[in-house]
UniProtKB/TrEMBL annotation:
Taxonomic source organism: Mycolicibacterium smegmatis (strain ATCC 700084 / mc(2)155) (Mycobacterium smegmatis)
GO function terms (MF aspect): DNA binding; sigma factor activity
NCBIfam families xref list: sigma70-ECF (TIGR02937)
Name by which UniProt lists this protein: RNA polymerase sigma factor, sigma-70 family protein
InterPro entries the UniProt entry points to: RNA_pol_sigma-70-like, RNA_pol_sigma-70_dom, RNA_pol_sigma70_r2, RNA_pol_sigma70_r4_t2, RNA_pol_sigma_r2, RNA_pol_sigma_r3/r4-like, WH-like_DNA-bd_sf
Gene3D superfamilies hit by this protein: 1.10.1740.10, Winged helix-like DNA-binding domain superfamily/Winged helix DNA-binding domain
Domain RNA polymerase sigma factor 70 region 4 type intervals: 97-144
Record lineage: Bacteria, Bacillati, Actinomycetota, Actinomycetes, Mycobacteriales
Keyword entries, A-Z: DNA-binding, Sigma factor, Transcription, Transcription regulation
Length: 163
């Protein structure tokens, strides 16, 4: 027969809190601890009588910690100073419309690699994940794209970019 859930919390609560604290730090540990025991409370009636309750709770805690880490990664990050004016890159009719047209004339992989790396700032590993292939292939595509722009569209590049 299973112990009452109250006793489970009393017995294993400190261990679960330690796990959450080590994984997340003290600020988010209590939230993960609460989420763990709320989820456990819902599932406890279906838990087998001979189950390793502590291992089961640590598994739930681990998943709740991962959820909090993922939530953190999705949150907006504070940045430094915001530019004084918005960019006009890619805006039809803007002064740099020639650059947009030149980039659009590149072969697809080069166009995407140039756009993702130079205009968005993605690292080559992430570009490779989007386009398929390796980070080296993404770097080569971006490099080839910039070389093509320098050769065939020198007037489209901002001053100093075609040196």
């Amino acid at each position: 027969m299973k112990a009452p859930f109250e006793r489970v919390v009393q017995r294993h609560g400190p261990a679960v809190l330690r796990v959450c604290t080590f994984v997340l730090g003290p600020l988010d540990a209590e939230d993960a601890w609460s989420d763990t025991f709320l989820a456990a409370l819902r599932a406890y009636p279906d838990l087998a009588d001979d189950a390793n309750v502590e291992a089961w709770l640590v598994t739930i805690a681990h998943r709740k910690c991962v959820d909090i880490i993922r939530r953190r990664e999705r949150e907006a990050l504070a940045i430094g100073d915001v530019p004084d004016r918005p960019t006009t890159i890619g805006v039809p009719g803007a002064a740099d419309d020639q650059l947009t047209s030149a980039v659009r004339a590149l072969p697809p992989k080069q166009r995407q690699a140039v756009a993702y790396h130079y205009f968005v700032g993605l690292p080559y590993a992430e570009i490779a994940a989007l386009l398929g292939g390796t980070a080296d292939a993404a770097r080569k595509a971006a490099s080839d794209g910039i070389a093509t722009l320098r050769t065939h569209y020198p007037d489209a590049l901002p001053k100093g970019a075609h040196r």
